[in-house]
Amino acid sequence: MDLRLSEEQQMIRSTVKDLAAREIAPIAEEIDQTSRFPKEVIKKIADAGLFGMLIPPPFGGTGGERLNYSLALEEIAAASASVAWCFAASVDVAFAILAFGTDEQRKKYLPTLAKGEKLGALANTEPGGGANWMMTLQTRAVASDNEYVVNGSKCFTTNAGEADIYVVTVRTDPAKGPMGISTLIIEKNTPGFSFGKLEDKLGLRADPTGELIFEDCRVPKENILGQEGDGMRIAQAAGAMDCAAQPAIAAGIARAALEASVAYTKQRTVVGPNTLANFDAVQCTIADMAATVEALRLLSYRGAFPEGQPDPLIFMGAILSRQLAMDVTAKAVELHGGYGCTKGFAVERYFRDAQTFSLVPPTADFMRAAAGKMLLGIPMGPPPGAGGPPR
């Protein structure tokens, strides 16, 4: 794999970096403190054509390479991890519809998703769920004539209330366990579909994370993604897409923390003309942080080049990237001393974002199990005897 960026890739990175510096960075602190969803920034990202980077031209996108997407994610995350995560969540929805949707579904939903005119959201998590969500999923979809009647709720959904297109896991056949899980495309403003509270989170505060509530919500049968029983397979594929994006976001968070620390230690005087940057311990810490940022970037680039079959490194990279982002941001706070814990310095936001980012879906147990299955040659799917053979 050639890690040198092409002229096109360098141009994409430079263009997105300029956009992030001009449109996102100046408001990053404000949207974090107020938990405001920055619609104006999302529009700027849409105007730049970034939402359609992975969508083929026939469906309104530009059909670019995954590495281009990773480059864009890192630059956006360096300015605001919240914006990057909202952006990635919508791209995940477009990916799911592209991979599993019918031609009619692709023609209906992908052009507006690719142009950023509408946002997407994935909804798997429920209040009683976790790593074993496929066994505990409670949201039901009962077939009735030409529609499904959906009842239940989801929680911790990114882009909740702001998204227009929701890809929702539901249980269509309780007798089949994990094999009775399906996926529906549910549009905002569908009767019976409403929103509950938004979470007041530690980090990623500009990402509206909240509840979805379904009360006799009637969804046309034509809105099923894939076939009945494909829900777990679709969730795994969307989870892999999520995981491939996470090292890029972690790299952006960590890089921002590193750059802030370099600037602070070079200007923070300690004794006479000496700054913090003159001390060996600080120099060693900065070197460690820089090495970690490069490792995260390499994980990001590697995840953008899947080689045929699903790659366990995508899942392992996501787990590792969360840990590394927390490590770098913690070092940044330490280098800033007491100021690192104050709102006047951005490193406290980077630290909170990294801590919150470590808990985003998929769960660490899911990713470890997925990577382990691949390494052991075990088919992806439910555990043996959990309702049918792996799909």
How much strand content do the residues show? Answer: 15-25%
* Count of spatially separate domains: 3
Which runs of at least 5 residues are low in confidence (pLDDT < 50)? 383-391
Total count of strands: 10
Helical percent range?
40-55%
Termini Cα gap: 32 Å
- The top level CATH class name of the largest domain: Mainly Alpha
User: Major sheet: size, sense and barrel closure?
Assistant: 4 strands, mixed
Oligomeric status of the shown chains? single chain
The CATH homologous superfamily of the largest domain is called Butyryl-CoA Dehydrogenase, subunit A, domain 3
Q: Work out the helix count.
A: 11
The name of the CATH topology of the largest domain is Butyryl-CoA Dehydrogenase, subunit A, domain 3
Quickly give the CATH architecture of the largest domain: Up-down Bundle
Q: What is the string of SSEs from the N terminus onward?
A: HHHHHEHEEEEEEEHEEHHHH
Indicate the radius of gyration in whole angstroms. 21 Å
Order the strands across the largest sheet as they lie in space.
1-4-5-8
Shape: elongated
The chain-level mean pLDDT equals 93
